Prior knowledge:
Strand content: 5-15%
Family: Belongs to the class-I pyridoxal-phosphate-dependent aminotransferase family.
EC number: 2.6.1.-
Cofactor: pyridoxal 5'-phosphate
Order of helices and strands: HEHHEHEHEHEHEHEHEHHHEEEHEEHEH
Shape: globular
Largest sheet: 7 strands, mixed
Low-confidence stretches: none
CATH topology of the largest domain: Aspartate Aminotransferase, domain 2
Mean pLDDT: 97
Pfam families: Aminotran_1_2 (PF00155)
Keywords: Aminotransferase, Lyase, Pyridoxal phosphate, Transferase
CATH architecture of the largest domain: 3-Layer(aba) Sandwich
CATH superfamily of the largest domain: Type I PLP-dependent aspartate aminotransferase-like (Major domain)
Structural class: alpha/beta
Number of domains: 2
Radius of gyration: 20 Å
Amino acid sequence: MFTNNDINFEALKRKAYNGRWATLEEGIIPLTAADPDFRMSKEIENGIIEYIKDGYLSYGPFSGLPEFKKSVAEHFNKGKKGSFTPENVLAVNSAAMGMYMVAKYVLNPGDEAIIFDPVDFLFKKTVDSVGGNIKLCAVDSKTGDIDFEMLVSLISPKTKLISICNPHNPVGRIYSREILQKIADIAAAHDLWVMSDEIWSDIVYDKKEFNTYSSVSENAKKKSFTVFGFSKSFGIAGLRIGAVLCNDQELMDDFTEKSMFNSTIEGVSTLSQIAASVAIDKAKPWFNDFLTHLQHNRDLAHSMLSNSGVLIPNLPEATFVIFPKINNGMSSDEFAQHVLKEGKVAIVPGSERWFGKGAEGHVRICFSTSQEILTEGLNRIINSF
């Protein structure tokens, strides 16, 4: 199901944008944007077809279809230790949009938000876009360990928000219940909001436990939002479907109102919500096979890079990206440009633009492709030096 023969390269070259097959010259292998090379499951495809058979695509409820909200709540409650009701769920246009909406709701211009360094660029971008000021808290670029002393020292009267990425992109760390409790205690002591981006929380290896942030304590439930999406786990990035979850219903109702999801000004495609509901309710067997394939690819990438002499890899606990350290003195941008020119492989440099200053000296490599493509891509990287 997840071999090279299962990848439709012609379709990818027509449709896979965001730094992938449709944007690159012929012959270049993209190990870039975190998007699978494999088609979505037949269950999702059939679910979409079935939904449109009667010819109606009418308005749905502004905050989301009941089946979508129910599916997402159950997904978190069964697999991530959550305690959400369907009413605690708001359908949004992607996890990225959810992050922006939370920043807009929580921050006034000039307010401060603490984010990790390194971390995905969307954390900075969403805070910047609402006029907030960024404070960077260092995390270890190999292990993802949080510098808690630094975290506390960054808090000022202007601080309003701590944003966490769990599992962490690009390091692949899953934060334990104890670490999340520590964050919750710090947030409560200083009356801060917490936003937890959990878009990667399905892609977890070695049967490790994942705890959704709001589940770890009563403090964590207060003044917190959880953001989720479907692009990573189920390969439906183009449908732009995500969710914001909040245990406090009064807070969620106010958030929905102020985000204008109470009229036709905002709202999410019903077709996208149906696809997401089917993904959760019917595509788990497909997903479980996908996860097994990804774990094999993670192990393959770690093994090949460990023996390369060129890059020193970490071992991600989650996600389908690996974040190795450059071993030859090149900067992240230099390394990525060299690999693109000499090896015909596109990767993401660990530059400030993409992940913050703490990412320098690393590159991010996506491995949600076939074993053959991954092996060829990694060999090209290694042999280009």
